């Protein structure tokens, strides 16, 4: 019974990390929009006061001109410049109101609205929501790892020691093989399957085309190059996210299952902010993600298939083909194929899973699989930062 409860204490936080990160990201996005709305209301009041004064001046000028025309007893009505200006002024006001309605976020008028997930536009989110959810997920994983190691599985406290992170030659070789496989077939990411499933960003961007391959959309399980014909289908200027700054990059409409190129250089004008985001993601992908995934799929699930609820009694050097196959097929099928509908990238997930399992069984230590996973992500991250091919981080 105790083992069953401990197992639930590990799996429930892991399964709830994605929806919880989505909710926290929506709250942060709502707070940002709420403050923006308040500032906009203050500016609008000031502008309205100025507009009222202008309208009064225009009316006074109009009355004065009508008096002059009446005194001259003219039969022809000649429109004055002030009347033209008043017409243009009203037209500008209407244009401003129309532009206000084009914002793709919902207006939040109270602090309670910030706690609602319904206020987030899932069909066309802003860049802030995407990055909020991603880094909220990293933060939640960090909290889960700390709590699990100290309260549920105390023997995992070794992950906070330096010896745990020293890789062996076998882990280094397997990680190099996994890196080559990832470059050939593509590298799958499991940050937020919900984001990919519901296509939160419908517009893809690429910069300098990255060899015409880094920015692509999915259609019938094949990678397709972005073309200008797709842009002509609709007036994308009316639907494009207002938060994204204009760039000299090609735009293309995506299909149902779209990939977002996580290139912060396209989202932020500051190179420092883009660099900080890249480095933080590199660190999180090399430390947090390997620990959490290997904890669930290698430390628990692989040995659970062999020993059931007494999985802690199963040695890490125990090899079972059924456990190796099932533990990897569950990951590749449920996540990569069902959620992401990847084409060749499920091959990468399958091979890297076997490499991590082989490292653990061969050396008889759980940290061997973590080191293999960590080095593979490190090589991929450095490859992305050097070549700027962000499709491997998509």
From TrEMBL:
Keywords: Membrane, Signal, Transmembrane, Transmembrane helix. This is CAAX prenyl protease 2/Lysostaphin resistance protein A-like domain-containing protein. Residues 1-17 form the signal peptide. One of its GO terms (biological process) is CAAX-box protein maturation. The chain crosses the membrane at residues 129-149. Residues 280-379 form the CAAX prenyl protease 2/Lysostaphin resistance protein A-like domain. GO terms for molecular function: endopeptidase activity. The keyword Transmembrane helix applies. The keyword Metal-binding does not apply. InterPro entries: Rce1/LyrA-like_dom (IPR003675).
């Amino acid at each position: 019974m105790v083992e069953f409860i401990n197992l639930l204490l590990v799996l429930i936080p892991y399964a709830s990390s994605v929806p919880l990160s989505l909710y926290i990201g929506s709250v942060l996005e709502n707070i940002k929009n709420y403050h923006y709305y308040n500032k906009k209301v203050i500016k609008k009041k000031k502008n309205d006061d100025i507009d009222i004064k202008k309208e009064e001046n225009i009316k006074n000028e109009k009355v004065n001109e009508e008096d002059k025309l009446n005194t001259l007893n003219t039969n022809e009505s000649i429109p004055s410049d002030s009347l033209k200006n008043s017409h243009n002024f009203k037209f500008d006001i209407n244009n401003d109101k129309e532009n206000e309605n084009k914002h793709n976020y919902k207006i939040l008028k109270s602090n309670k609205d910030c706690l609602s997930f319904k206020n987030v536009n899932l069909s066309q989110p802003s860049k802030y929501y995407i990055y909020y959810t991603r880094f909220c997920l990293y933060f939640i994983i960090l909290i889960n790892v700390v709590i699990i190691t100290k309260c549920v599985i105390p023997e995992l406290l070794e992950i906070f020691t330096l010896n745990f992170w020293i890789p062996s030659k076998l882990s280094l070789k397997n990680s190099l093989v996994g890196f080559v496989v990832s470059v050939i077939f593509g590298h799958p990411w499991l940050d937020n399957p919900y984001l990919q499933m519901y296509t939160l960003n419908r517009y893809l961007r690429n910069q300098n085309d990255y060899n015409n391959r880094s920015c692509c959309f999915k259609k019938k399980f094949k990678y397709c190059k972005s073309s200008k014909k797709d842009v002509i289908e609709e007036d994308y200027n009316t639907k494009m996210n207002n938060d994204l700054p204009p760039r000299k990059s090609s735009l293309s409409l995506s299909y149902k299952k779209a990939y977002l190129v996580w290139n912060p250089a396209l989202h932020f004008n500051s190179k420092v902010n883009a660099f900080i985001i890249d480095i933080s993601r590199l660190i999180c992908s090399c430390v947090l993600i390997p620990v959490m995934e290997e904890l669930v799929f290698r430390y628990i699930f692989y040995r659970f298939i062999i020993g059931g609820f007494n999985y802690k009694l199963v040695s890490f050097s125990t090899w079972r083909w059924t456990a190796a196959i099932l533990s990897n097929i569950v990951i590749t099928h449920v996540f990569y194929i069902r959620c992401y509908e990847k084409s060749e990238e499920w091959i990468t997930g399958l091979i890297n899973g076997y490499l991590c399992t082989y490292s653990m069984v061969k050396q008889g230590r759980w940290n061997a699989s973590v080191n293999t996973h960590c080095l593979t992500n490190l090589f991929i991250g450095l490859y992305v930062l050097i070549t700027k091919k962000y499709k491997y981080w998509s």
